[in-house]
# Entry
Amino acid sequence: MSKIKTSFFCQQCGYESVKWAGQCPSCSQWNSFVEEQSQKDNSKNNNTWKDYNEEKRITKTIALSKIKSSEEKRMPTADPELNRVLGGGIVPGSLVLVAGEPGIGKSTLFLQNGLWLKDIIVLYVSGEESEQQIKMRAERMKQGPSSGIGDNFYLLTETSTQTIFQEIKKLKPQLVIVDSIQTLQTPFIDSSPGSVSQIRECAAEFQRFAKETNTPVFLIGHITKDGSIAGPKILEHMVDTVLQFEGDRHYAYRILRTLKNRFGSTAELGIYEMTSEGMRGVLNPSEILITQKEEQLSGIAIAATIEGLRPLLIEVQALVTQSVYGTPQRTVTGFDLRRLQLLLAVLEKRGGFHFGVKDVFLNIAGGIKVEDPSIDLAVLCALLSSYEDVPIPQQICFAGEVGLSGEIRAVNRIDQRIAEAEKLGFEKIIVSKYNQKGLAKQKFNIEIVTMGRVEEVYKHLF
# Structure
């Protein structure tokens, strides 16, 4: 039996040290070191996957030119939004980490996706709920045995990884869903579930299983109060794909965002609506992100943005009021505060508008967070509309980045933005004149107005 070795780990970043320290030298957090067992007793570890499938893995050194390349066959799910964020479907042998706040709908989403995969054997491992709770949830989603779904869907309520792997060897599933990685415990490390060393070792065991047997594994994870994924940062390095499930619990809409993807784009976005029967994918999100109004209101502008491959039209709401206190307020929801201050400075310097004595409030409708710089022009027009108290006509939308000298800069994939605006019935779109090169105006039935400076936009609208 090997000697038990202990080390000190930072609970925030997973940094390992031989002695205790007050402050972590890696992430500078105070009082985050805990003592845990670092060297496991491998004498009882019998997790070898040589007999699991017929294909024997090559364990010798091989030249890159000798490796036969083959098209990666993906396993498409019945959920188009999940297919989109994964890059076209589930890759065999991939390890996917899904993180989100408690109660956001992670378990519901992957329970229903597991039940929809009728042609393959799915094992759902739950360390948080009992079989009865999961059965009740499946029946609530009208996915129970009476609906004819669930014959190839197997449940296991267990937290010990060794017991889980023994069951996996008997069942030989083609997809494994683990809910959640923080509840699992390996018997080779003497620390409590959820600790840095336990999460790291359990994830490593599932990574080894996924790669050696070519079986995809979904690990559902928790997040900390500051919004980062619970556990050491190495957990995100180990997995192939990291998905963040986010959204305000007061809204019905949820966003599945790709933070890391070895098999596809990291700019993709899936939008779901939380219903009593589970998660419903939203195929046309532009319609839900633009509120329907009977009368025209000031401070509202529509921006044509792109998230991944998908064009979205979103509503930007601004409110500019006289500042009551000495220091004017700047409050934003779903937008970068520093970017707002930059745009206010451009308006102050280039347009002569006195925003320094005004409170400014900005909101992106629908609870969505936007990082695309092409939203700048819509934000600027919403601010001017509220400042002048003059509504912008409802049939106008905007796509353009604003530079520090007040110029409107070109944005990428302008054709897709214009096509989406035309599809939703907009009559006019204002874009940068520097986008004219690759733009064929005659193929669109929407009026395209090109402008080069912020002052021109102000004169055109107000």
